[in-house]
Amino acid sequence: MEGGRDDHVLSRLQRQQLHHFPSVHEGLRLGDGLLRAEERGREFPPVCLMLWHHRTSQKIVPKPSFIVDGVSRFDFGQGSVGNCWFLASIGALTFQDFILKQVVPLEQTFDEDYCGLFHFRFWRFGKWVDVVIDDKLPTINGQLIFVRSKDLTEFWPALLEKAYAKVCGSYSDMNAGTPVEAMVDFTGGVHMSVQLSEPPADLWELMCRAGQARSLMGCGTPQGETSANTVLPNGLVQGHAYAVTGVREVLSRAKAERLVRLWNPWGQGEWSGDWSDRSPLWQTVSPQDRETCLSVREDGEFWMTLQDFCKFYSDLDICCSCPDFLDGSSSCRWKSSFHEGRWVAGISAGGCMNHPGTFWTNPQYRVEVGGCADSQGENNMLVSLMQKPDKRNRRLVQNLHIGFSVFEVPKEYRAVRGKLPAAFFGRSKPEAQMDGYTNAREVMQLLSLKPGEFLIVPSTYSPNETASFILTVLSKAE
């Protein structure tokens, strides 16, 4: 097992450079020996592990660069771990410079004051953390095993992937996921999910506003009969994550066509139907639209109609630090509140409303809904519930089924301090609640509530399940 750098072996220059890092995530040592030991032992055939070597960037290429000619989704392609969900999120991230600079400090370099260390920032369960790594990367026969840049001298994608593998526990802990997980970790924001089998009537307007805001958008195709990423005759990949990289309306044969642009993180493999790169339909639009939109090359990016997008994709996730994009012309703004809590078996883990004898023991949070005039009859609250893991390795985390219920607090109970008693819940019906309890890292729901005081009760589905959580509430205000 190859060792990593620990505090006591850092050079003076390395120590000086670390003074520029605001913090280091608790439990994530500066040295990467733990990461290298864990990443080897699972899911990779023994014949691969025998050939596996960690090399510094300068031993992979003579003159490495952190970034070459800017940052783009076309810089890289997926490697030998099933983390298309993470790479699709990076593709979306490259469109938002402000967020990108938070996650990937762009001033880092292999040149001046290079000390062998790089750092990245992620929002992890309620706080921003700096993750510091060295530049040793896993290789076989001198070639990178995981994400690799198309310009072999550029290393920001491989180093970003290594930093995220560190917070997950190992590279193999990144296997399988959804883009929203990484998008939340990139933004510290909230997300909304859209089931494309039953899309909202204003889906197009929603995507257009999200594209204009500081939002990240990702989506996925339905899983096939097996877990394999089968390439369909139309070019799409089953059970695969994509980034949404643009929306545009064009005029074709005197008819408006709503188009969605998508990117495959494999860096190749594209849709072959209507409005694909070589579709004759591009000859029906203006030369200006054709020049702006069409790029005939095998880069994994393509256009399709909104109708086909809803037909062939299963879900869309939009992630943003503030859900202003939900409103078309509202003068209201969103205010947020953030709560950390814990369900403790036998004390505060009462389960869902199917358990009336213990439901009231769950944590309770009161919120005020204002009377923003523009929001009458519209969604005016977004509630997000995220459970915090109790394991270091992502693959070992067993998400509980979680959800929440929202009750209006009548006048006679507004002066009551502490938890409302079982009697209240015995005669009160929730104003809103989750459609179902889900074993996901995070669940959210948009609500339409009248002005007043409300009580949010987050819970697990079954009683006596211990776990920590984060409750985020955003509500409209004048």
TrEMBL record:
<dbReference type="InterPro" id="IPR000169">
    <property type="entry name" value="Pept_cys_AS"/>
</dbReference>
<dbReference type="InterPro" id="IPR022684">
    <property type="entry name" value="Calpain_cysteine_protease"/>
</dbReference>
<comment type="similarity">
    <text>Belongs to the peptidase C2 family.</text>
</comment>
<keyword id="KW-0788">Thiol protease</keyword>
<dbReference type="InterPro" id="IPR036213">
    <property type="entry name" value="Calpain_III_sf"/>
</dbReference>
<protein>
    <submittedName>
        <fullName>Zgc:136872</fullName>
    </submittedName>
</protein>
<keyword id="KW-0479">Metal-binding</keyword>
<keyword id="KW-0677">Repeat</keyword>
<dbReference type="InterPro" id="IPR001300">
    <property type="entry name" value="Peptidase_C2_calpain_cat"/>
</dbReference>
<feature type="active site">
    <location>
        <position position="264"/>
    </location>
</feature>
<feature type="active site">
    <location>
        <position position="84"/>
    </location>
</feature>
<dbReference type="Pfam" id="PF01067">
    <property type="entry name" value="Calpain_III"/>
</dbReference>
<dbReference type="GO" id="GO:0046872">
    <property type="term" value="F:metal ion binding"/>
</dbReference>
<keyword id="KW-0106">Calcium</keyword>
<keyword id="KW-0645">Protease</keyword>
<dbReference type="Pfam" id="PF00648">
    <property type="entry name" value="Peptidase_C2"/>
</dbReference>
<dbReference type="InterPro" id="IPR033883">
    <property type="entry name" value="C2_III"/>
</dbReference>
<feature type="domain" description="Calpain catalytic">
    <location>
        <begin position="55"/>
        <end position="319"/>
    </location>
</feature>
<dbReference type="InterPro" id="IPR022683">
    <property type="entry name" value="Calpain_III"/>
</dbReference>
<dbReference type="GO" id="GO:0005737">
    <property type="term" value="C:cytoplasm"/>
</dbReference>
<dbReference type="GO" id="GO:0004198">
    <property type="term" value="F:calcium-dependent cysteine-type endopeptidase activity"/>
</dbReference>
<dbReference type="InterPro" id="IPR022682">
    <property type="entry name" value="Calpain_domain_III"/>
</dbReference>
<keyword id="KW-0378">Hydrolase</keyword>
<feature type="active site">
    <location>
        <position position="240"/>
    </location>
</feature>
<dbReference type="InterPro" id="IPR038765">
    <property type="entry name" value="Papain-like_cys_pep_sf"/>
</dbReference>
<dbReference type="GO" id="GO:0006508">
    <property type="term" value="P:proteolysis"/>
</dbReference>
